[in-house]
Design a protein that fits this description.
single chain
């Protein structure tokens, strides 16, 4: 999971930066009020989420249990963020149009995590469940340590 988190982080950065450059420098908002603000907020949220994933990935590669916790938090926040965006889309507000207009390019950083393996949110859900099962199995072992390697998982 650590390697996958790190690769998806790099893919997220690869997709996010050109979109940010285009949205901030080259896009004419064509009358959508609040587009740039919505885009900047969404991009900041994307950077926070993918930063959590890469932190989890590094910790998991170092065989630290804290990587499981960080990955779980990042996955929960990612799915909650997706639900929040869909709720905002459903509102009939001017701000909803701004969020809808910026969603496609403002969420390019998290797109690799959301759409890895083609099924939406499959990776966050399955990887988190797998890591939680691993942590649960680790707590069942009589020789509990602070690292995953101590549970015999190398």
């Amino acid at each position: 999971m650590g390697a996958i988190d790190t690769v998806l982080f790099l893919a997220g950065l690869y997709f996010l930066f050109p979109a940010a450059r285009w949205a901030l420098l080259g896009f004419n908002s064509i009358g959508i009020p609040g587009f740039r603000i919505a885009f900047l907020v969404m991009t900041a949220i994307n950077l926070i989420l993918i930063s959590l994933y890469v932190t989890a990935g590094i910790k998991l590669l170092r065989l630290r249990k804290s990587g499981i916790t960080i990955h779980t938090v990042a996955s929960i926040l990612l799915i909650a963020y997706g639900f929040l965006i869909s709720l905002i889309w459903g509102m009939n507000l001017t701000f909803s149009r701004s969020v809808a207009a910026s969603t496609g390019i403002g969420n390019m950083g998290i797109a690799p995590f959301e759409f890895a393996f083609v099924v939406p949110d499959l990776y966050p859900i399955v990887s988190t469940l797998a890591l939680l099962i691993i942590r649960w199995k680790m707590t069942d072992t009589p020789t509990q340590t602070e690292s995953i390697a101590g549970a015999g998982l190398r």
